[in-house]
Design brief:
- The longest helix is centred in the first third of the chain and has 31 residues.
- This protein starts with a helix and ends with a helix.
- By secondary structure, it is mainly α.
- Helix 2 runs antiparallel to helix 3.
Length: 250
């Protein structure tokens, strides 16, 4: 049962062409475009780390949210409800399956970015980046699962995703400094996982600085999101549930 669910999630994830575009093709185009204009100083490192982080958040949050929403509406999960499988195990399998592909996608983005911008790839930078991408993908995919549980339609998925993604990206120092930003922007940015994640990716490339918070903060968000995903998980769509209630009343 576990292997079947895992393989099914892998197959459906690979069919998600829209998310693959925004997580793979769009970031690569962004690296190439930015690389032509900002190719000196620390910018190449910022571009690779920042764009890789954006790829991670796009794949994790919106990708799984739409995928789970689609499968739930198709009635895929209602039969699994009859099995003795714990909800947390089921949620974890789907998050892990999505994470496996996300790791590959993000490592491709990172690797091509490093080569295109002519940044040296060392064994240490590769290994550290891989570890961070695993943690980051797990984190944002878990958050995306929460979004899929709270949203009742695709419009709400877009709204909830943007409400979380945009503050994370713009309140981070992925591409620019927040030195002159208001204190409240800096505080909120440091409370969110994206800032620590992108900083960790940058430190992994330069092999200078700590990655401790880049692991601890995303892991904390991952655990919290996993628990919340399990608590809020719906085996059937709201429309299906309402139809059943209407039939009972009739």
């Amino acid at each position: 049962m576990v292997n079947t669910i895992f393989r099914s999630m892998l197959v459906t994830s690979l069919r998600d062409k829209i998310t693959l575009f925004y997580s793979l093709m769009f970031p690569l185009a962004l690296i190439i475009g930015l690389g032509f204009y900002f190719d000196d100083g620390e910018m190449p490192v910022k571009i690779v780390s920042g764009v890789t982080a954006i790829s991670t958040i796009f794949w994790g949050m919106q990708g799984i949210a739409f995928q789970v929403h689609f499968q739930r509406n198709k009635g895929v999960y209602k039969f699994l409800k009859l099995t003795p499988m714990p909800t947390m195990l089921f949620v974890s399998i789907m998050i892990l399956a999505r994470t496996v592909i996300g790791i590959v996608v993000n490592m491709v983005v990172w690797g091509i970015g490093m080569l295109f911008l002519q940044i040296d790839i060392t064994f240490g930078s590769f290994l550290t980046t891989f570890l961070l991408i695993v943690v980051g993908t797990l984190c944002f995919t878990s958050i995306g699962f929460v979004i899929s549980n709270l949203a009742n339609n695709e419009g709400q998925i877009n709204m909830y995703s943007n409400l979380l993604q945009l503050p994370m990206i713009f309140m981070s120092q992925a591409f620019y400094s927040l030195q002159n930003a208001p204190d409240w922007v800096k505080i909120i940015g440091k409370l969110l996982p994206f800032e620590h994640y992108v900083k960790g990716l940058r430190n992994a490339i330069t092999l200078d600085g700590s990655i401790t918070l880049a692991i601890i903060i995303p892991l904390a968000f991952m655990i919290g999101s996993l628990v919340l995903s399990t608590y809020t998980f719906k085996w059937e769509s709201k429309t299906t549930t309402m139809m059943k209630k209407s039939k009972k009343l009739a």
